[in-house]
Amino acid sequence: MNKALAVVLLASLAIGSARAIVLTTLDVATVTTGGTAVTALLVGHRTSGGWLMNPSTATAALCINERGTATTTAGGDVTCIAPGQTYLLAPTREAVSVVSSDGPHPFSGYGFQ
Questions:
Q1: Assigned CATH for 3-112
Q2: pLDDT tens digits for range 9-43
Q3: Closest CA to 91 of 64, 111, 61
Q4: What is the pLDDT of residues 39-53, one digit of tens each?
Q5: Cis peptide before 104, with omega less than 30 degrees from 0?
Q6: Other Cβ atoms closer than 10 A to 10
Q7: pLDDT value at position 73?
Q8: DSSP β-bridge partners for residue 31
Q9: Contacts of 66 (CB under 8 A, 6+ apart)
Q10: Which residues pair with residue 38 across a beta bridge?
């Protein structure tokens, strides 16, 4: 998802709600060591949802866990997205963990509050 599309998504979310949504920058935007999970968004940084994107230039999947520590294998609470894909985060106070099999592996996104 490019930033223009993110702004359109943000605008549509804000229109349907009684309050404006604030973008929260990722707390961490790079998996520095392959196989070692990082916390992309800390507790409370996506109370209205959010999104993460694995860049199209990436060479490995980005795995996301919205309930615990991410692993490099999809299943259970872990969803893996291919290079160029975007993942929408559920609105909750919980942290978001991400991992990739390679590192450094940058990714992008925002939390919505």
A1: 2.60.120
A2: 555 555 555 678 999 999 999 999 999 999 999 99
A3: 111
A4: 999 999 999 999 999
A5: yes
A6: 18
A7: 95
A8: 105
A9: 77, 89, 90, 92, 94, 96
A10: 98
